[in-house]
Amino acid sequence: MSIRYAVDIGQYARRHYIKSFEKKYGRAWDITIEALIQEFQNFDVLLGLTIAEKIAESGDVKICKVEFKIAGSEKSRHGSGNRCIVAVHKDTNKIDILLVYHKNYLGEGHETMKWKQIVVENYPQYAGLF
Can you point out the beta strands (E) in 1-130? Predict the structure, then answer.
């Protein structure tokens, strides 16, 4: 039996790249974010698939990267270049969506280093995990 998580979208995620998705995709984005929240509520299932990857873990908290596609898109999750960074709290059964982005939004260079820096700067409570 899997754990059902409460899902919260972090303030940084709300204010930044999500706005780009809303503007670009409109109603398809609304469907996509709702589907993501539903998937994250059963996050343990995602970890068994290739679309979710554990990046760091300390105690009851783990940081994971999840690939997603826009609703109605022909591209695969991986091929879309869309990613979510989430913090999974096993002790409180909560998931914080820290960052939602397309890999091109981060600019040139090493994608992982860039999003890790964004997380450290905007969510200091997770800085010690990297």
Answer: 6-9, 52-58, 61-68, 82-89, 94-102
